[in-house]
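Exercise 7b. Backbone tokens:
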């Protein structure tokens, strides 16, 4: 059940007592993929490193209507050269970068999608876990998994800035606005604000090579499996922008690593990846297990003394009571 800020203020003193009695805030239950779940398939063997995805991600998400980077009164977080916004030079995900393209390079870096003397690109953003650890530890349900689409979204008006989500996420995705006096968590929300009008993830919309495609997760899984069964060097019609797109690019299949990243990792994710280079070389932690992370994180968080958690909640309630935020009408 979602609670809003007013409910939280009313319930917080009782919540502290509840925690002090040893009860947990969320149940660690294995979740299943929603039949309508949507996500992204990123095929590193097709990526040309143009960063168009990052540009459109920032463009779309700085817009007022639902953008994950939009915040009233905040300047658009572009870099500027004189009067002109320029492409980001960020090297990591941050409170102004929801997605990032990185490069693997070894030796001469001449062989595309090869380990030795090779190179590959990789795209990082929220994995939209089927059972998201970030949402399971959030004491006020500021992070929430939409039941139908499965997008893991964030309600900034509920957030109390405890940063539990940052500790819990096995992929290091949520970022905190350290430079703000009204700090919030920032992360990719799958561009879910575009779904009601038929839109989809902005990164896929601008990807010219077919490396990032959006669609139902079940179809993305099938597409990924199909690609793994392709013969190296054989031509294949790769769909562009969406998995069901009629726009296709005929390209020779690369030699894939026999793994769909996100099928099982952290209990399964709605962002899936294919690559020609092992995923640990692309920066993915090889120690991420197949177990749902809420189970693991709650094993840890339940060991935090209940009194500390109670004090945290009481402090958060006090923080909200004094915080100068937009009025309830504006929030709606
Ligand atoms: S990758 Fe991290 S932030 Fe994204 S849904 Fe999973 S746990 Fe949450
Ligand atoms: S889904 Fe949207 S917010 Fe997430 S990386 Fe793509 S464009 Fe950015
Ligand atoms: S737009 Fe597509 S090809 Fe360009 S960097 Fe992003 S994922 Fe790679």
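Sequence design result:
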């Amino acid at each position: 059940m979602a609670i809003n800020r007013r409910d939280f203020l009313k319930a917080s003193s009782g919540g502290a007592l509840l925690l002090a009695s040893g009860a947990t805030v969320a149940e660690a239950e294995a979740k299943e993929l929603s039949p309508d779940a949507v996500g992204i398939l990123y095929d590193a063997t097709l990526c040309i490193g143009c960063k168009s995805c990052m540009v459109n991600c920032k463009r779309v998400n700085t817009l007022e209507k639902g953008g994950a980077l939009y915040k009233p009164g905040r300047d658009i977080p572009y870099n500027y050269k004189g009067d002109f916004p320029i492409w980001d030079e960020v090297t990591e995900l941050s409170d102004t970068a929801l997605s990032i393209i990185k490069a693997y390079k070894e030796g001469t870096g001449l062989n595309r999608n090869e380990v030795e003397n090779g190179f590959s690109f990789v795209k990082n953003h929220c994995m939209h876990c089927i059972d998201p650890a970030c949402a399971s530890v959030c004491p006020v349900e500021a992070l929430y998994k939409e039941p139908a689409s499965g997008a893991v979204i964030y309600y900034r008006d509920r957030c109390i800035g405890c940063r539990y989500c940052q500790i819990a996420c096995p992929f290091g995705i949520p970022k905190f606005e350290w430079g703000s006096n009204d700090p919030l968590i920032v992360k990719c929300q799958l561009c879910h604000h575009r779904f009601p009008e038929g839109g989809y993830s902005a990164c896929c919309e601008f990807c010219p090579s077919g490396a990032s495609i959006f669609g139902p997760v079940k179809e993305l899984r099938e597409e990924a499996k199909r690609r793994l069964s392709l013969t190296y060097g054989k031509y294949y019609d790769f769909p562009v922008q969406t998995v069901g797109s009629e726009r296709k690019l005929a390209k020779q299949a690369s030699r894939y690593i026999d793994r769909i990243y996100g099928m099982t990792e952290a209990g399964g994710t709605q962002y899936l990846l294919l690559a020609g280079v092992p995923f640990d070389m692309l920066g993915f932690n090889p120690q991420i297990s197949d177990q749902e992370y809420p189970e693991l994180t709650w094993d840890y968080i339940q060991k935090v003394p209940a009194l500390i958690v109670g004090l945290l909640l009481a402090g958060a309630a006090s923080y909200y009571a004094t915080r100068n935020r937009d009025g309830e009408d504006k929030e709606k």
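Instructor comment: DSSP finds nine helices and 14 strands in the chain. The first helix runs from residue 5 to 20.
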